[in-house]
Amino acid sequence: LTDMDAVTLSTTRLLSQGRLDADIAWRVILVAALANLVFKGGAAYALGGRALGLRVLWLFTIAIGVGIGLLLLWPAGDVPAPASPVAPIHEAAPGGPPP
User: Fold this and answer.
1) Do 78 and 90 touch, CB atoms closer than 8 A?
2) Residue 25 CB neighbour total at 10 angstroms
3) What distances in angstroms separate CA 31 from CA 4, 22, 38, 68, 89, one per listed residue?
4) Measuring CA to CA, which residue among 56, 36, 33, 53 is closest to residue 45?
5) Structure pTM?
6) Using one digit for the tens of pLDDT, what is the confidence trace for 15-33?
């Protein structure tokens, strides 16, 4: 239904290029994961009915609460930069294979 790959790959690419701080990068990925949970919880309720919606509600509430707690309580700037940056993604040149 929703996919975290695009957010994770884009964020780690920006981090590896030095265009995004590690402290911001993990927060971006976490916010996307929380939004993903909210969407999936709503989908479970809408597609599976009230009984299923209530079953997943308490689990998702715990996960979302922990995520929000991390966002609010984790001190800014306490995430070190990665030791070895992620290898850059090579884009294919028009008419030929990637380098």
Assistant:
1) no
2) 19
3) 11, 14, 11, 8, 24
4) 53
5) 0.72
6) 999 999 999 999 999 999 9
